Amino acid sequence: MGTSAMRWLLKKSARKTMALASRMGTARGGIHVLTYHRFGNAARDPFCVGTEDFEQQMALLARLGTAVSMADVEALLHDRREPSAGAVLVTIDDGCPSFVEHALPILRRHGIPAVLFVPAGELVDGTPARGNSEEPTDRMTWEELRAVADAGVVVGSHAWTHESLGHMSLDGAREQARRSRAVLEQRLGRPVTTFAYPFGTRADYSPAIADMLREAGYTSAFTSQHGAVRADSDPFMLPRVKIEGGEALWMFDASLRGGLDAWRWIDRTMWKLQAAGAPR
Q: 115: which DSSP letter?
C-alpha cells in the first residue's frame, strides 16, 4: 500500500538528512537489528524493499562480515558476550509470501542469518489464491513456513493475529502470546522464544505486557523503536532499525553504522498520537 507523494518525499528527506548527518560515524558497540517486511516492486511503499536492493544490501553485509544470528543477540543480552564491531541482525516481520519468493534465496546465497516473525493465526494450510501484487495482509502457508525453518531461519512470534497488544486487555494479549508460541512450536517442532510486537510503537507494548511475555516463556521481544541492542538493553523492549524501500545503498550502509538511531526521538514524540488511534 503506497503513501501520498508528499508524505513520501517528506519522510525520505528526513531520513536522508539524518543519515547524511551521521554518515561518517561508526556504530558504537551493540547490535543493530534491521527490520524488513515485504519484498518486490511497489510504488511509494516504505514497507516493500526492492528485490535488487535487498540483493545489494545482503551482498554488502556478506562483504563486511558483520551479520550475526539470534543466538548472538541472546549471548549479548544474557551472557554479556560482546559481538564484533558493527554487528547486524536481519529480521523480517509479518510472514508475507514475498519473503519465501524473493528474500530467502538471497539470504541463503550470501549466508546471512535471519529471524522471521509471523502472526501464527493468520497462516493457512494448502495453496491460497494470490493476486499479481502482494497485499500487506497476505501470509505464507504453514508448508512454506516449515521450509523456511528447515532452511535455518529462526522463527519468532508476531502474536496470534497482527493486532496491537497495547490496545487490548492484558488477558487478551496473554492469549495472543501463548497461543502463537504453542502452535508454532507444535507445528514446527522447534522452540520459539523470541517475539516482535505488532506495529511495535510505544503504544503497542508496556512493562506489564513485557512481564507477561516473560511468564509466557519468551526470552526476548523486539519493538520498532530505533537504536542498537546493547548488553544493558531490556530484553523485552529491544530496539530495531527499519529498512525502507526506495532508498540508496549508502543509506543502508549508514543505517548499519547507527545513522538512523536518532530516529528514536521521532518515535518518542509520535507515540501519543499512536496511542490515541491515529493512522500509523
A: E
Please state, in angstroms and rounded to a whole number, the distance separating the CA atoms of residues 236 and 241. 16
Contact 252, 243 (CB under 8 A): yes
Question: In whole angstroms, how far apart are CA 60 and each of 52, 57, 67?
Answer: 12, 5, 10
279 burial type by CB count under 10 A (0-12 exposed, 13-18 middle, 19+ buried): exposed
Tell me the domain boundaries of the chain: 27-126+134-275
The CATH code belonging to domain 27-126+134-275 is 3.20.20.370
The region, left, alpha or beta by phi > 0 then psi within -120 to 50, assigned to residue 18 is alpha
Whole-model pTM: value is 0.91
Name the grid cell of 89.
541482525
pLDDT-flagged residues of the chain (< 50): 24-25, 274-280
Whole-number Å distance between alpha carbons of 57 and 132 = 25
In single-letter form, the type of residue at position 108 comes to: R
